[in-house]
Design brief:
Elements lengths: L10 H5 L4 E8 L5 H19 L4 E9 L11 H11 L5 E4 L2 H4 L3 H13 L3 E4 L4 E2 L6 H32 L11 E4 L2 E4 L4 H12 L4 H10 L12 H8 L8 E3 L2 E3 L5 E3 L7 E3 L9 H17 L19 E3 L6 E8 L2 E8 H5 L9 E2 H18 L4 H10 L2 H30 L5 H49 L7 H7 E8 L2 E6 L4 E5 L1
Parallel strand pairs: 1-2, 1-3, 3-4, 12-16
Antiparallel strand pairs: 4-5, 6-7, 8-11, 9-10, 13-14, 14-15, 16-17, 17-18
Helix pairs in contact: 8-9, 13-15, 14-15
């Protein structure tokens, strides 16, 4: 017979309190030696503070060095800490101040609320705020707004400082281009790369284009600084960079008030410094290379800085592979010593085993477009006009009426939020009640706003299709029978071409139709 013996539980272990797993986060704004010393001091401070509390278990210090605090997405240390919170490794976080955590109000509150849902709370030392106390959320909003203003102020001060250094020529190029390196704040020639730069310019002056030069470099097994393959863009960027003749143009780009970087097309002042550093290419050779590039662009009808380079042929960038999804490129083929143009899948060109779709002659695509237009001329009454009627019959009035109702609901929601905020400020409303009601109203406002945006997008989409269809019908009514390929009509009415099979393609029209044609 079985014998069962009960082993009593250890009451001391049952009553032993679970230690709080505590982590700390630290950040310095630059990677200077002084700031890194500050980081070491913060690391020592938090480690001592956490380990001295018998109820806490030290998880570790998460930190970022030399990273701007305006965006969480750029801070690997912070993101790793948030991931560990989601993984259940952290219960409590200590941070020096809100500005160390986030200087963007929206990001700060979103992160805090996300952590609260995970039962992970933050203590901000400077502001004496514990996110475990929900009544502090309003205070947290105020402080994070101040931190965001501080970030903007610091950014403006830094911009002013940089511009002054531009003006007096003391600005240090932090990331020298290929062929140079930074030594004690000065741009000096990198002997490991300089021969490649000279080769690129020599090949350009010999009449080779960026594509051919890039291919030659790759064939020779010469990697870029990032250990990737050369491309037409990387070669042309070197050929166009004035730094190789010893000069430098400051403020080619600028950052707007939302911390988004843009190319400077005249919005901000620029500063050109001659003889800034040792040249790799003589001024005469550099200018000769520019003349070569400009002449080649002129011959190919390319405008510098214009996207036309990728779209100088009617079908460039507009053919999509139905097998792998890649775009197709124009190539020169020959048959019996007769040359002709064709389009081929970029994936198939590089790796035949990854896409089996073979090339299509350019002339066959042009003929397919002619056939499609001529079919529409004869079938407009049974295809285009019914489609036009159905688009016109869409009840936009109901959508607009619904948008008006949503506007009224948003206004009512805002009034309610203002009212409870006034009651909370006058201490007529408890913090817990205020937070619950305010969170509910904010969620409701977001839902209303999302529905409103969806309606606007739907109306805009329908209007775009209706306008495109009207243009197509007008063109069909005036063209008669099309005998030659009309590039303007193709650009006007076709969104893109999808290749289903080598002998079947589809024209995706801007009015929403997709019409198939056999080749």
């Amino acid at each position: 017979m079985k014998r069962i013996t009960k082993i009593e539980a250890n009451e001391k272990l049952q009553k032993a309190p679970k230690k709080l797993r505590v982590a700390a986060y630290a950040r310095v704004s630059t990677d200077s030696r002084e700031q890194l010393v500050s980081l070491d001091a913060q690391r020592s401070h938090y480690e001592t503070c956490i380990k001295s509390n018998p109820n806490w278990e030290y998880v570790g210090l998460y930190y970022d060095e030399g990273i701007s605090g305006t965006s969480m997405a750029k801070r690997d240390g912070l993101l790793k800490m948030l991931d560990d919170c989601e993984a259940g490794k952290i219960d409590f976080i200590i941070i020096k101040s809100i500005s160390r955590f986030a200087r963007n109000t929206t990001e700060c509150l979103e992160a805090v609320r996300k952590l609260i849902k995970l039962k992970v709370f933050i203590y901000f030392e400077k502001e004496n705020i514990n996110t475990g106390d929900m009544e502090n959320e309003l205070l947290l909003t105020i402080f994070s707004s101040l931190a965001e203003s501080e970030s903007i102020s610091l950014s403006e001060n830094e911009k002013w400082s940089i511009e002054k250094r531009f003006q007096n020529g003391t600005y240090i190029v932090a990331s020298p281009p290929y062929g140079y390196k930074n030594e004690d704040g000065l741009m000096v020639i990198n002997e490991d790369e300089v021969d490649v730069v000279r080769y690129i310019f020599a090949e350009c002056l010999a009449g080779k284009g960026g594509h051919v030069i890039a291919r030659d470099l790759n064939d020779r097994g010469i990697p870029t600084r990032r250990k990737t393959e050369w491309s037409t863009g990387t070669v042309n960027a070197i050929l166009r960079n004035e730094k190789y003749k010893g000069d430098v143009l400051f403020q080619k780009t600028f950052t707007d008030s939302s911390f988004v970087r843009h190319i400077n097309n005249g919005e901000k002042a620029q500063y050109y410094v001659t003889e800034h550093h040792e040249a790799i290419i003589s001024a005469e050779d550099f200018e000769a290379a520019q003349a070569m590039i400009d002449q080649r662009s002129k011959d190919m009808k390319i405008k510098q800085g214009d996207a036309k380079y990728q779209n100088r042929y009617p079908f460039s960038g507009k053919i999509v592979c139905g097998e792998c999804g890649a775009t197709w490129k124009r190539r020169t083929h020959s048959e019996s010593k007769v040359k002709y143009f064709a389009y081929a899948c970029k994936t198939h060109i590089k790796r035949v085993d990854q896409c089996s779709m073979q090339f299509i002659r350019e002339r066959n695509i042009e003929v397919a477009f002619l056939n499609m237009i001529n079919k529409l001329v004869f079938s407009k009454k049974v295809l285009l006009q019914p489609l036009l009627a159905s688009l016109k019959d869409l009840n936009q009035g109901e959508a607009l009426a619904r948008i008006n109702k949503l506007d009224e609901a948003l206004e009512d929601n805002l009034n309610k939020r203002q009212k409870i905020t006034e009651l909370f400020a006058k201490e007529y409303l408890e913090a817990a009640v205020f937070n619950e009601q305010n969170s509910g109203l904010l969620a409701e406002a977001k839902q209303i706003g999302d529905e409103k945006e969806a309606l606007y997008a739907s109306l805009a989409h329908e209007n775009e299709h209706l306008e495109a269809l009207n243009k197509l019908i007008k063109y069909i009514n005036t063209v008669g029978t099309l005998k030659d390929f009309d590039e303007t009509a193709f650009q006007e009415h076709v969104e893109y071409i999808i290749v289903f099979k080598r002998f079947e393609i589809g024209f995706v029209l801007k009015c929403g139709l997709t019409l198939r044609e056999r080749l």
